C-alpha cells in the first residue's frame, strides 16, 4: 500500500520512512491502536516501502516488481496471520483468499467485520496453537528474494496462551532479516512476555481535518457534513464509515435529538413518553449510533459556547440548531449529560430494556437542561 493512500498519520509515515532509510528497524513491533485509526494500512505501507527498489523520500514507487507483489498481497516473503474460526479451519492460510479480498475491498476493518466476512454464524475467531507452528515454520525458511521476511499478525490479542508462548523464542531471537509486525487494539489482552519483546508503536486517532478531507473527496458529502461526521467518529475511519449510512438516517438522528431537547425543555411528560416509545422501536445498533450522535452534539455545544464557534465541527443544519440550543449546555450540566448518555450507550450495548432506559434518560435530560 502506498503511504499517500493512507488517511492522515503523517508523523508515523515519516517515522517509518526514517527507520528504513537509516536501516534502524526494530525486528518486532507492536502497532497499538483501534483498527479504524489505520494500523493495518500503515503496516502494509511500511512493508511496501521497505521492499520497494525505487522508493523516494516520501513513498514507495508503486511500480517495481516488489511493490506490485505487495499491492496484490502476493509477495512470497510477506506472510499474514489473523484470527480464524477454528470450527472451519485452524490456520490462516486456508482463509488467505478471503483475506486478500477483504483488504483489497478496504484495509480498514475490525474483528467483527472480518468475522462476518468469513463466517455467517458469527463464531468467535482466534489465533490458535496450529497457527504458531505455521509461523515458526515459515520464518525458519530462507527468504525467497534474499531480503527481509515479514510476518504481520493482525489482532494479535486474539492469540491463545499456547500460541503466544510458542512465539516467545522466535520473537526474542528471530532469524536474520526477520520483521514481526503485530497489530492490536488492546495491550491489556496480551501476555506481558509478548509486550516486553516488542517495540510499541502507538497509532493515534486520525486528525479530524485529515479524515474530513478524505470523506469529502471520496464520498458524496458536503464539506460541512464531512466535518460533522469526522468529529463524531473521533478520528476513527471505520466509525465514520458506519456513521455515513444514508442521508435519511443522518436526518433522523438530528431530528430525534432536537425533539428530545425541546420536549424536555418544555417539561411535556406526554411528549417525552411518546419520544421514548418511538426510539424504543429502533434496533440496538441504531440506538447506539443515536446516543453517540447526542454526545457529539453536547461537545459541539460546549465548543460553540467557549470558543466563539472557532472549533465546532457541525453541518449547516446542526449549526442552525446550536445557535439557540448551545447556551443550555454549560459547565453546570455537561458532566451529567456526558455521563448519563455514555451510561445509556453502555447499557444498550448490553441489552438493557430500551423503553425503560430511554424513559429514564428523558427525565434526566429534563432535569439537566434546566440546570444551565
Describe the structure.
The chain folds into 2 domains: 3-202, 3-Layer(aba) Sandwich (Rossmann fold), CATH 3.40.50; 245-369, Zinc Finger, Delta Prime, domain 3 (Up-down Bundle), CATH 1.20.272. Helix content is 55%, strand content 7%. The chain is built from 17 helices and 5 strands. The protein has a 5-stranded parallel β-sheet, with helices on both faces. α1 (10-21) packs parallel to α2 (39-51) and α16 (334-349) packs antiparallel against α17 (354-369). The longest helix has 23 residues, at 284-306. It is elongated and about 75 Å long. The mean pLDDT is 89.
Task: Give short descriptive properties of this protein.
single chain, 372 residues, alpha/beta, Rossmann fold, Zinc Finger, Delta Prime, domain 3, five-stranded parallel sheet, 17 helices
Radius of gyration: 24 Å
Question: Class of the largest domain, according to the CATH hierarchy?
Answer: Alpha Beta
**Which overall shape is indicated by the principal axes computed on the Cα atoms?**
elongated
Number of strand segments: 5
- Please indicate the count of domains: 2
Secondary-structure-based class equals alpha/beta
Helicity, as a percent range: 55-70%
Helices and strands, in order, run as: HEHHEHHHEHEHEHHHHHHHHH
Amino acid at each position: 500500500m502506498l503511504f499517500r493512500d493512507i488517511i492522515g498519520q503523517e508523523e508515523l509515515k515519516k517515522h517509518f520512512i526514517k527507520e528504513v532509510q537509516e536501516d534502524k528497524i526494530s525486528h518486532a513491533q507492536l502497532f497499538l491502536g483501534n483498527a479504524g485509526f489505520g494500523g493495518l494500512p500503515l503496516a502494509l505501507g511500511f512493508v511496501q516501502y521497505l521492499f520497494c527498489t525505487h522508493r523516494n523520500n516520501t513513498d514507495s514507487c508503486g511500480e517495481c516488481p516488489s511493490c506490485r507483489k505487495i499491492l496484490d498481497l502476493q509477495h512470497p516473503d510477506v506472510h499474514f496471520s489473523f484470527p480464524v474460526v477454528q470450527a472451519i479451519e485452524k490456520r490462516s492460510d486456508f482463509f488467505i483468499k478471503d483475506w486478500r479480498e477483504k483488504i483489497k475491498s478496504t484495509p480498514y476493518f475490525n474483528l467483527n467485520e472480518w468475522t462476518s466476512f468469513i463466517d455467517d454464524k458469527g463464531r468467535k475467531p482466534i489465533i490458535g496453537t496450529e497457527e504458531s507452528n505455521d509461523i515458526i515454520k515459515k520464518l525458519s525458511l530462507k527468504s525467497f528474494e534474499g531480503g527481509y521476511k515479514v510476518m504481520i499478525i493482525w489482532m494479535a490479542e486474539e492469540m491463545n496462551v499456547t500460541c503466544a508462548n510458542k512465539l516467545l523464542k522466535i520473537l526474542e531471537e528471530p532469524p536474520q532479516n526477520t520483521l514481526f509486525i503485530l497489530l492490536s487494539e488492546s495491550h491489556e489482552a496480551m501476555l506481558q512476555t509478548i509486550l516486553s519483546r516488542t517495540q510499541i508503536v502507538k497509532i493515534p486517532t486520525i486528525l479530524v481535518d485529515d479524515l474530513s478531507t478524505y470523506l469529502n473527496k471520496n464520498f458524496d458529502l458536503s464539506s460541512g457534513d464531512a466535518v460533522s461526521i469526522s468529529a463524531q467518529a473521533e478520528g476513527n475511519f471505520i466509525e465514520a464509515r458506519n456513521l455515513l449510512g444514508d442521508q435519511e438516517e443522518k436526518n433522523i438522528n438530528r431530528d430525534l435529538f432536537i425533539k428530545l431537547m425541546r420536549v424536555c425543555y418544555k417539561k411535556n411528560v406526554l411528549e417525552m413518553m411518546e419520544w421514548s416509545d418511538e426510539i424504543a422501536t429502533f434496533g440496538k445498533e441504531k440506538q447506539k449510533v443515536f446516543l453517540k450522535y447526542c454526545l457529539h452534539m453536547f461537545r459541539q455545544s460546549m465548543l460553540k459556547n467557549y470558543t466563539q464557534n472557532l472549533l465546532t465541527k457541525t453541518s449547516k443544519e446542526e449549526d442552525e440548531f446550536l445557535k439557540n440550543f448551545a447556551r443550555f449546555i454549560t459547565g453546570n450540566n455537561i458532566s451529567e449529560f456526558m455521563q448519563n448518555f455514555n451510561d445509556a450507550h453502555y447499557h444498550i450495548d448490553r441489552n438493557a430494556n430500551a423503553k425503560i432506559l430511554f424513559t429514564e434518560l428523558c427525565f434526566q435530560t429534563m432535569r439537566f437542561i434546566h440546570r444551565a
